[in-house]
Write a structure and sequence with these properties.
The protein is α/β, with parallel strands linked by helices. The chain is built from twelve helices and 18 strands. It folds into two domains: 119 residues, 2-Layer Sandwich (Arylsulfatase, C-terminal domain); 370 residues, Alkaline Phosphatase, subunit A.
């Protein structure tokens, strides 16, 4: 540990006085042993009795913690349907994504594995990207399918798949969506997609390949587009599109598809699982005419109200089919609110999109990865309950496994910990004491109880201090915050607690090196993971 700290660039800068290295190493070792063995960070509880509720997991896109009325008493955007889930179920006040952008979050949700164990070390995929989830990897869909569930994915995929090319092979934009993909018109839009949702445990898929501002602009049903891409359209970025495809229709269409699926499977003997990742309120921000102007604030607030109405239609379908009591439903989001929401306009109206938390989408700060997470399960979860137990979306797979009595293989869901005891009100403490998140640039943050260590200066994302735009050469190389007394991350305590910093760095190092954060044999990451990213270059002075 001493050797590691001494050889790590930036650790021994004057602003971070590492003194008494022997003491630090001792404390670090003790902390790692405590967190990784004694504290139930990696505990896996056993199910008292296996049950099989219907499960619906709704994942909104770019909606902030403060955009939900049940979480933000001063919210100016009405969300009565999301609030209904919270009021009839449980609010998780300390819930986190594994990343402050969407593709990595989706990977972690579906696999129970940290995304940074893959080749995706920063940013997101494009609409023509290769699959991020490897074939044979456990997903929540494949796990539940083995438990007798009918499984559906409806909405925005954004995890890559193999688009067939007319001349053979598969499309590959390399994750670079900054410019048009040269082979976008060489895709066989009547051919079958491989290595997508239907190959990862989903019996049924309907949706779009990536974000709605990334081509190709077509709906896909199972393996084939519902309409061939024959025209060029641009919902921010130009690319192949179906002649009838319009961005404004996507949220209503996937909502109708989800309601249809519920109606068709409500009376089936086997339970269903629906993974419902929305395209909204992400850009393009396109509420339907019914919702335009409804908020009285701006178009983002209108679109957020439409998202809530989508949730309401799902709840109505459960009511109409009389399956409320047999259904566990989750509402959460893939990261914090985006600057595309025109945050200044929201704040001028008195609305704090990420509540009391610093930053927003893309950032390492709480506003980037602390997200709404509300769960309703009648008869199991106490209505109107709230917990501050630390939880990650990455934990949903292990939770679903415990609920249904499934066994997780030794090489699956490597970072997923069941929060079922908390959900049922039977836990005195959180099942985990630590969680790891990343910014869009791949900068790490790790929690240890109330403490949070950001392994970088600045936001690591889009807010100030912003890498590559703001001069951060005089900032401490890392940031340590006590979230219990400073939830807004205003006071960097890095210079005051070198022993704690050393211990948390050791925790992060172990989590990376072990290839897992649950009990079991050491596993390999897909790539070498760089723990401390190089400082961004000092921006050039403007002339």
């Amino acid at each position: 540990m001493v050797q590691f700290l001494a050889s790590t660039p930036g650790i021994c800068r004057p602003s971070f006085p590492l003194h008494s290295l022997h003491k630090i190493a001792t404390l670090a070792f003790s902390a790692v042993v405590g967190v990784f063995v004694h504290v139930p960070f990696f505990s896996v509880a056993k199910a008292d009795s296996a049950t099989r509720p219907n499960i619906i997991f709704i994942l909104a896109d770019d909606q902030g913690f403060g955009d939900v009325g049940a979480l933000n008493p001063d919210s100016k955007i009405p969300t009565p349907n999301i609030d209904r889930i919270a009021n009839e179920g449980m609010i998780f006040g300390d819930a986190h994504t594994s990343s402050s952008v969407c593709t990595p979050t989706r990977y972690s949700v579906l696999t129970g594995r940290y995304h940074w164990r893959t080749h995706l070390q920063k940013g997101v995929l494009g609409g023509f990207s290769k699959p991020l989830i490897s074939q044979g990897r456990l997903t929540i869909a494949s796990l539940l399918k083995r438990q007798g569930y009918t499984t559906a994915g409806i909405g925005k995929w954004h995890l890559g798949w193999d688009w067939p090319l007319k001349g053979g092979g598969a499309a590959d934009d390399g994750g670079d969506f900054s410019k048009p993909y040269a082979k976008g018109w060489d895709v066989d839009y009547e051919g079958e997609i491989q290595n997508g949702p239907n190959d990862l445990g989903f019996d049924y898929f309907f949706g779009i390949s990536a974000s709605l501002d990334m081509p190709p602009y077509v709906f896909v049903r199972n393996r084939v587009p519902t309409q061939k891409a024959t025209v060029e359209k641009a919902f921010q970025r130009k690319g192949p599109a179906g002649a009838d495809f319009e961005a404004v229709d996507v949220l209503p269409t996937i909502t109708e598809e989800t309601v249809r699926f519920i109606n068709e499977h409500a009376d089936a003997p086997e339970p269903f699982f629906i993974y419902f990742p929305l395209n909204a309120p992400h850009t393009p921000i396109v509420p339907t005419e019914q919702w335009r102007g409804k908020s009285g604030i701006n178009v983002y607030a209108d679109f957020t109200m439409q998202v809530d109405a989508t949730v309401g239609k799902v709840l109505d379908a459960l009511d109409a089919n009389d399956i409320v009591d047999e259904t566990l439903i989750v509402f959460t989001t893939d990261n914090g609110c985006s600057p595309a929401a025109k945050i200044g306009e929201l704040e001028a109206a008195g609305h704090d999109q990420n509540y009391i938390y610093r930053g927003h989408k893309a950032d390492i700060y709480e506003g980037g990865h602390r997200v709404p997470f509300v769960v309703r399960w009648p008869g199991k979860v106490k209505p109107g309950s709230r917990t501050e137990h630390l939880v990650g979306q990455i934990d949903f797979l292990a939770t679903a496994a415990e609920i249904t009595g499934a066994t997780i293989p030794a090489d699956g869901a490597e970072d997923s910990v069941s929060f079922l005891p908390t959900l049922l009100g039977k836990a005195d403490q959180s099942a985990r004491n630590s969680i790891i998140s990343q910014s869009i640039g791949g900068q790490f943050a790790i929690r240890d109880g109330q403490w949070k260590l950001c392994v970088c200066p600045g936001s690591g994302g889009w807010s100030r201090p912003r890498p590559g735009r703001d001069d951060m050469t005089d900032l401490p190389p890392m940031q340590l915050y006590d979230l219990a007394s400073d939830p807004g991350e205003e006071k960097n305590l890095i210079a005051l607690h070198p022993d704690r910093v050393a211990a948390m760095m050791a925790m992060l190092r172990k989590a990376i090196d072990d290839g897992r954060t649950t009990p079991g044999k050491q596993l390999a990451n897909d790539v070498d993971v760089v723990m401390i990213k190089p400082l961004p270059p000092k921006p050039r002075a403007k002339r």
